[in-house]
C-alpha cells in the first residue's frame, strides 16, 4: 500500500511522528509538507527532534488569508497527488493544511484517512471547526481519539470506517516522558524558574490574538498573577502584542517558541497552565497539571469533565479565579487511550489484508 501523509503546522508534526515511524515498517509513505508553518522553531526543528522522515515535497505555501492559503495548498497538493499515484491520503487534525489535503484527495477520488476525527467545539466561527467538519464528512477512514468523538460522528450520520484508537499525541508524549524530570531541572535553571512555582502560558487562537480588547484582557490577567509567568510566543501572537503595545510586569517572561521536549518539560514542572491550544489542554491533563483554557469552549471536553481543565475565556477575573482553584482529584480514567494509537491506526490496514 502506498500512502501520502500530508502535514503543514506544528501540532501535525507531533501527530505524524509515531504514525509515520510505524507506517514505514509495512507500507510506502510519501510525506508532503504544505509549508503552512515555515519558521525553524515551528517546523524543521520538529522533524529533527522527533525523527520524522524528511518531507518528499515541501510546497512552500506559506501564510495568507484563509482562502488564499488554502487555495495555494489545494492546487499544489493536487499536482503532487496526480503524479504520485497513492492508494490513501493520511491527514491530521484540523488546520488549513488538513482541509486542503482532504479536498485535493477527494477530488481525485483517493480515499482519505483522518487522524483525530470527530472533534467538535460547536463554534463555527473557529476556522478549525469548519476544517474538521468538512474533513470528517469526506473521509473514508476516521480515527477517533476519544469515545466522545466517535459518538459525535454517529450523531452526524458518519457510521462507516470509524474507529476509536486513542490519541496519537499521547503516543508521542509517552515516548519522551522518562526524560521530562531531568529536562525540566536543566531548563528551569537556565530560565531562573523553580519547579511548581511558575505559570506556563500560550496564546495563538485567532479569536484571542486578532481582537485587541480580548488580547489586552488576557495580558491584564497575566500581569495580575503575581507569580513568575513563562510565555513561549507564537509568531502570530508576537505581531499582535507589538501592534497592541502591550506592556508586561517583570515577572512575565516572553520567550521564542520552544521544541517539543522542552515544552513538555515546562508543562510537567508548571504550577498551572493557561492556554488556548488544543494539544496543550490534553498534555496538561496527561501530565497532571491543572489547566485554565482561554476559550469559551473546547473540543477536549473530557479534560473539563474530570475537573482538570477550566474554561475561563478571556475575562481577567474568571482567569484569576480559575488559577486560584485547588488541584482536583486524580482522574478516574484516561479518556485518551493507552498510548498505542499509532499501532492501531497502522494495523487497521493490516487487519483488512491491504
Ligand atoms: C495554525 C492553525 C491552528 C493551529 C496552529 C498551531 C489553521 C486555520 N490554524 O494557526 O489550528 O492551532 O496553526 O500552531 O490552520 N507565521 C510565522 N511563521 C510561521 C508560521 C506562521 O511568522 O512559520 C505567522 C504569519 O504571520 C501567519 C500567522 O503566523 O500569518 C498565522 O499562521 P497560520 O499558519 O495561518 O495560522 P496559525 O495561527 O499558526
Ligand atoms: N508546542 C511546542 N512548543 C511551543 C508551543 C507548543 O512544542 O513553543 C507543542 C505543544 O506541546 C503541543 C503542540 O505544540 O504538543 C500544540 O501545538 P499548538 O498549540 O501550536 O496547536 P494546537 O494544538 O492548538 O492546534
TrEMBL record:
Source species, domain of life: Bacteria
Matching InterPro entries: UDP_GlcNAc_Epimerase_2_dom (IPR003331), WecB-like (IPR029767)
A Pfam family: Epimerase_2
Domain UDP-N-acetylglucosamine 2-epimerase: start-end pairs: 26-348
Keywords, ordered alphabetically: Isomerase
Keyword presence, Isomerase: yes
Keyword Cell wall biogenesis/degradation appears in the UniProt entry: no
Family: Belongs to the UDP-N-acetylglucosamine 2-epimerase family.
Protein name: UDP-N-acetyl glucosamine 2-epimerase
Amino acid at each position: 500500500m502506498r500512502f501520502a501523509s500530508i502535514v503543514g503546522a506544528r501540532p501535525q508534526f507531533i501527530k505524524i511522528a509515531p504514525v509515520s515511524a510505524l507506517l514505514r515498517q509495512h507500507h510506502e509513505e510519501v510525506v508532503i509538507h504544505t509549508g503552512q508553518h515555515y519558521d525553524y522553531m515551528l517546523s524543521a526543528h520538529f522533524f529533527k527532534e522527533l525523527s520524522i522522515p524528511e518531507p518528499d515535497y515541501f510546497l512552500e505555501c506559506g501564510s495568507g488569508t484563509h482562502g488564499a492559503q488554502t487555495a495555494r495548498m489545494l492546487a499544489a497538493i493536487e499536482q503532487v497527488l496526480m503524479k504520485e499515484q497513492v492508494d490513501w491520503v493520511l491527514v491530521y487534525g484540523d488546520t488549513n493544511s488538513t482541509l486542503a489535503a482532504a479536498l485535493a484527495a477527494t477530488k481525485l477520488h483517493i480515499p482519505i484517512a483522518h487522524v483525530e476525527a470527530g472533534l467538535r467545539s460547536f463554534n463555527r466561527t473557529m476556522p478549525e471547526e469548519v476544517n474538521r467538519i468538512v474533513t470528517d464528512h469526506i473521509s473514508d477512514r476516521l480515527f477517533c481519539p476519544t469515545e466522545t468523538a466517535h459518538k459525535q460522528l454517529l450523531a452526524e450520520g458518519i457510521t462507516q470506517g470509524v474507529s476509536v484508537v486513542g490519541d496519537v499525541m499521547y503516543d508521542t508524549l509517552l515516548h519522551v516522558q522518562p526524560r521530562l524530570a531531568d529536562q525540566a531541572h536543566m531548563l528551569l535553571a537556565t530560565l531562573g524558574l523553580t519547579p511548581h512555582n511558575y505559570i506556563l502560558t500560550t496564546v495563538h487562537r485567532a479569536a484571542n490574538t486578532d481582537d485587541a480588547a480580548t488580547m489586552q484582557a488576557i495580558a491584564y490577567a497575566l500581569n495580575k498573577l503575581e507569580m513568575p509567568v513563562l510565555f513561549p510566543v507564537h509568531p502570530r501572537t508576537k505581531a499582535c502584542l507589538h501592534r497592541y503595545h502591550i506592556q508586561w510586569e517583570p515577572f512575565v517572561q516572553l520567550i521564542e517558541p520552544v521544541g517539543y521536549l522542552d515544552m513538555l518539560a515546562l508543562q510537567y514542572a508548571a504550577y498551572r497552565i493557561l492556554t488556548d491550544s488544543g494539544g496543550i489542554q490534553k498534555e496538561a491533563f496527561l501530565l497532571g497539571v491543572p489547566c485554565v483554557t482561554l476559550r469559551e469552549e473546547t473540543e477536549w471536553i473530557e479534560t473539563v469533565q474530570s475537573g482538570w481543565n477550566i474554561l475561563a475565556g478571556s475575562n481577567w477575573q474568571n482567569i484569576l479565579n480559575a488559577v486560584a482553584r485547588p488541584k482536583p482529584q486524580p482522574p478516574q480514567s484516561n479518556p485518551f487511550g493507552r498510548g498505542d494509537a499509532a499501532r492501531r491506526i497502522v494495523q487497521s490496514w493490516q487487519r483488512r489484508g491491504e
